[in-house]
What we know:
By secondary structure, the protein is mostly helical. It has helices spanning 15-23, 35-42, 53-65, 82-97, and strands spanning 27-30, 46-49. A two-stranded parallel ribbon has the order 1-2.
Amino acid sequence: MVDHPRDVIASNIPGKVYEYGATGKPMLAVVPRGATSELIRRMDAGLCVPHQPEAVAEAMRRLIDGDAGIEPDPGRWAPFERRKSVERMAGVFREVLG
């Protein structure tokens, strides 16, 4: 996955991150430091590298060789499934509206 570089720390997380995470396959994310890289690291779902060809090549090698040191687990992404998110949001609306 590639996220375009920004001058500030990114706070938006692209929706595709959640879908990729749910596959259980390791991600290679070429992203700036920010919310996306933090989520991928916290979920132990892949490697995050800067927009530098050498860093991308090294991360690809680690993933291909199986020495990336990550343990992707699609179950970790279950709380982020669309249906569960909608159910939580509906619960908030019901609570607010009484």
